[in-house]
Structures are given as structure tokens and as C-alpha cells.
Design a protein that fits this description.
- The chain is of the alpha/beta class.
- The chain folds into 3 domains: about 1-40, no CATH class; about 50-80; about 85-490, no CATH class.
- The chain contains 18 helices and 14 strands.
- The chain has helices at about 30-40, 50-80, 110-120, 125-130, 150-165, 190-210, 225-245, 280-290, 295-300, 305-310, 310-320, 340, 375-380, 395-405, 430-440, 455, 465-470, 475-490, and strands at about 1-5, 10-15, 20, 90, 100, 130-140, 170-175, 215-225, 255-265, 325-330, 355, 365-370, 405-410, 430.
- The strands form 3 sheets. Strands 7-6-8-9-10-13-12-11-14 form a 9-stranded mixed β-sheet, with helices on both faces.
- Strand 6 (about 130-140), helix 5 and strand 7 form a beta-alpha-beta unit.
- Helix 6 crosses helix 7 (about 225-245) and helix 10 (about 305-310) crosses helix 11 (about 310-320).
- The protein starts with a strand and ends in an 8-residue tail after the last helix.
């Protein structure tokens, strides 16, 4: 063993590659420095004491991550309770199996098997008892898809099943249009034509399923947002295609198509020009109107919306409906479609709106009014060549009111739940300017609220998250569905149904 002095005046004993330090006569700072040097020479990578102190923190972090993952999956499981897929349109035959209207390319083999089984098991005498079928068509809005109206479809289907249990001889068929999915920017007329083609296919499928033995089909339409405009514009094409198909009916058996209910929800009947949520300069509206063909129609760069209220090509089919209903968000709750255009209120219009007393039974309705039908004013001859490119709101609103509408002003300003605070109903009738002053603008006395009524009213169900976020709108949709099916089965009443 050899001994040598180092630079610190201490004695090291060197045995092989290891060094032993004799530190008995050194002060504390010097000891600390030597320990740090020896640690560096031995290249110790970490401190075991620090590691033991970090273990509890790591465990806590892992537990937190696990709890977050569990909470996420529990939340997803919870919101899935509010999510409904669009039901498949079913044509039910009493005491037999059912036909399903599906694309031929998807379930062709299964459809052939169902048809073979149906031919063997269907009782022709039972089918012959069905003389009337009720058809309800749902139309989604701009940038929408059928899934947007999934909860409305579900609510209507539930009420329809209850009605069919009481009267199985009058089936109710609900169809959610798919033709305009991801195709709403190429103009209102183009979208309406696609809907007309799809509806004709549905009607032909119904006739084929029932063997052409039904005498009458009652036809009702429900349009949300732009879907209400699509429905209005599509009516002439629907009638034309139906009449053409009946002319070529087999065995000269014709089926009557009766227009029943026409319902819109947050639909911009007067377009979007001068009906933005915030007042904007006209040049900004002009810029927005150039973004798509549909925008041009809605901002009156084309005469289409005006024509639908003047030209008898569109007016006459609307007058054939037994009842017309318009739902509108009140108190500035709708950022997309404000109250004035959804309820076609014009301050200069002279249409009288009669108070409907039954609205007190509706927790979501701030007020329900009805306009008197004056169809003789609408059947006057109009020269299409003289129709201006842009029209006043007053003329459009007046002619729509002359058709006879029931208008429901919906109040969701109280924490996004139906409000029980009604407006003053001491008067029997209201002028359009009075209704606009009461319902169009936000009311400070109702507190702060975000204007999300456009998705809240139909319970927009595009995703599970949107279904959960809009669940407060379910009372309105449930009651609307009950009223709608009641009017379809028992006939529309003049006033708002209880």
C-alpha cells in the first residue's frame, strides 16, 4: 500500500483504483467539497433520497390521471343517454312483418328476403282494411344533416306508436330527408328539387308496400331553419311528381294525396337581409351574400323568396295545408334566426294576431297567436314578369299572414329552461309591431343569457355532446310532437292544441 499527499494536504491510501480519504482533521465546508468531488469521480447518476421523496408525488399524479380517465368515460356514458340515432323509416302492417325503406345498394339481399317472407305471410284481407296512411317529412337546415333532428324524429315516433296502438288501421310513417346532407350551399331551389325527388321515392315505396290498396295519404311537413324554406319551395315539384305518377298508376288505381300540417321551427321566412342578430352595414351583408348561392337567395339577391309569397305556383300548395304552425325564439334567444324573420313580423304589416288562450298550458310558450286566413287575397292574379328582384318585408309578411298561421313564441331565457313568466295577455289581439317590440330584442329584466336558442329549440343532436348540451329543449319538442301527432290523427284544430 502506498501513501501520497494530495493538493489539500491530506493523505490518501491507494489500493488499486480505489482511494480512501482521511478527513478527521478537516472542517465541515472542506468535507462537503470533498464529498462532492468524490461523487463526481464515482459518477453517481441520482440521489436515492430524492427519489424516495418523489415517489408519493408520482403516485398522486398516476391516481389523478386514472380518475380523469374514469370520469371521462362515465361522462360519455351519461351523455349517451341523451343521444338518439335517426330511426329507420318503418312501414308497419298490422299483424304482419314490416317493410323498411332503405337504400337498395345497402341491404339488397335482406330486402329481397323480407319481401319474400312478406308475400308468404301478409294477410291480404288485413292490408285491404288500411285505407289511409299518414306521412310526416322532416327537413334539416343549413349545413345540417338528418342527425340534427334525431330527437324530434324520436319524439314523433314515440307519439306515433302510441297512436297506432289505439288505431292500427292508420299507420304513421316518419321520414327524415337525407338528400341535402352536406349539400346546402348550391341554392334553395337545387336543395328543394332534391327533396322533392326523395319524397317521391318515399311515397312510391309506401304504395308498393301496401300493394296500392290505400285510398288516401295525408302529407305533413316539418322544417327546421332553412329546412322550412326548402319545404315551401319543394311543394310544387312534389305535387307535379305525384300527379305524374298517378297518371301512370297500375290498374288505374289512384291514391289521393291530402296536405295536412305544415310546421316550421326557427325558419327565416323573410330571409336574412336586415334580419341579422346584430345590425351590420349593408356592404357587409352584400359580402356575405356572395359566399354561396343559398346566401344569395336568403339575402334577396334573387327573387325566389318573394316569388314563394306571390306566385300561385307556390302559394296554392301552401293553402292546401289544413294548418300552418311557426315556432320562433323570443327575447333575442336565437342568434341565427331572430324573432322577426322566424315569425315574419313586419312593423308596417296590418295583419291582426289573435290571442290563443290555450297557451297557458304550454310551459315553454311565452305567447301563442293565430292570424286569420284570407285566401281570397292570395288568389289574385300576379304577373310574374313584374316581380321585383328584391321585395319589402311588409309585403312578404302580409301575404304569409293571409295564409293563416299559428305562431308560437318560445321563451328559454330563464336558465335555458322553459319560462313560466308569460307576457301580458289582457288584450285579445296584437299588431305585428307590438309583437316585434315585445319579443325581438333582449330584455334586461330577464338577466344574462347566451343566445343558443337555435340549437336548443330542436334539441340539435348532431353529436352526443350537442344532445347533452341541448337537453333543456326536450319539454318543447315532447309537447310539440304530442300536438303534431294529435293534429295528424284527429284533424287539425283552429287553435293551438292542448
Amino acid at each position: 500500500m502506498s501513501k501520497e499527499k494530495n493538493a489539500f494536504g491530506t493523505c490518501n491510501s491507494v489500493v488499486g483504483n480505489e482511494s480512501f480519504l482521511w478527513i478527521s482533521h478537516l472542517s465541515s465546508p472542506t468535507i462537503h467539497q470533498l464529498n462532492e468531488m468524490l461523487r463526481g469521480r464515482r459518477q453517481l447518476s441520482f440521489n436515492f433520497n430524492d427519489t424516495h421523496e418523489a415517489v408519493p408525488l408520482i403516485v398522486i399524479l398516476v391516481i389523478c390521471v386514472i380518475l380523469l380517465v374514469v370520469a371521462f368515460f362515465l361522462f360519455r356514458r351519461h351523455i349517451n343517454k341523451y343521444y338518439h340515432q335517426v330511426p329507420t323509416t318503418i312501414i308497419k302492417l298490422p299483424e304482419t312483418e314490416s317493410y323498411t325503406i332503405v337504400p337498395e345498394q345497402q341491404l339488397q339481399e335482406q330486402q329481397q328476403q323480407q319481401q319474400q317472407q312478406q308475400q308468404q305471410q301478409a294477410d291480404e284481407t288485413t292490408i285491404s282494411k288500411i285505407e289511409r296512411v299518414h306521412v310526416i317529412i322532416l327537413v334539416h337546415g343549413w349545413l345540417g344533416c338528418p342527425q340534427d333532428l334525431a330527437y324530434i324524429h324520436h319524439a314523433l315516433q314515440h307519439q306515433a306508436e302510441i297512436a297506432m296502438e289505439a288505431n292500427p288501421q292508420e299507420p304513421i310513417i316518419i321520414h327524415n330527408c337525407k338528400a341535402n346532407k352536406n349539400r346546402t350551399n348550391d341554392g334553395v331551389q337545387a336543395g328543394a328539387d332534391r327533396i322533392a325527388v326523395e319524397i317521391q321515392g318515399v311515397l312510391e315505396s309506401i304504395l308498393a308496400a301496401y300493394g296500392g290498396k290505400i285510398n288516401e295519404i295525408t302529407f305533413s311537413m316539418f322544417g327546421f331553419s332553412l329546412g322550412g324554406i326548402y319545404a315551401r319551395v319543394a311543394l310544387p315539384e312534389i305535387l307535379e311528381r305525384w300527379e305524374s305518377s298517378q297518371e301512370h298508376a297500375k290498374n288505374n288505381k289512384t291514391t289521393k294525396l291530402t296536405f295536412d300540417l305544415f310546421c316550421t321551427m326557427a325558419t327565416p321566412h323573410l330571409g336574412c337581409r336586415d334580419h341579422m342578430y346584430f345590425r351590420v352595414p349593408r356592404f357587409i351583408e352584400n359580402i356575405v351574400s356572395r359566399t354561396s348561392s343559398t346566401s344569395r337567395d336568403l339575402f334577396h339577391k334573387t327573387p325566389l323568396l318573394h316569388q314563394t309569397t306571390v306566385d300561385r305556383k307556390w302559394v296554392d300548395p301552401m293553402l292546401q295545408f289544413k294548418k300552418r304552425i311557426a315556432y320562433a325564439n323570443a327575447f333575442g334567444m336565437d342568434m341565427i334566426v331572430p324573432t322577426n324573420t322566424a315569425a315574419f313580423l313586419s312593423k308596417n304589416s296590418g295583419a291582426e294576431h289573435q290571442y290563443v288562450c290555450e297557451h297557458k298550458e304550454k310551459s315553454y310558450a311565452a305567447l301563442v297567436v293565430a292570424t286569420k286566413a284570407q285566401h281570397e287575397h292570395l288568389r289574385t292574379d300576379n304577373n310574374n314578369a313584374n316581380i321585383p328582384k328584391a321585395s319589402s318585408d311588409m309585403g312578404m309578411a302580409q301575404r304569409l299572414d293571409d295564409m293563416g298561421w299559428t305562431k308560437v313564441f318560445v321563451d328559454y331565457t330563464r336558465s335555458y329552461s322553459p319560462s313560466s313568466n308569460k307576457v301580458d295577455t289582457s288584450t285579445e289581439s296584437y299588431r305585428p309591431d307590438e309583437l316585434a317590440a315585445e319579443f325581438h330584442a333582449r330584455k334586461r329584466r330577464r338577466g344574462l343569457y347566451f343566445p343558443k336558442g337555435h340549437d336548443l329549440m330542436p334539441v340539435n343532436s348532431k353529436t352526443p355532446y350537442s344532445s347533452f348540451a341541448n337537453r333543456k329543449g326536450r319539454p318543447l319538442v315532447n309537447q310539440m310532437a304530442a300536438d303534431f301527432i294529435n293534429d295528424v290523427v284527429h284533424g287539425p284544430s283552429t287553435n293551438f292544441q292542448k
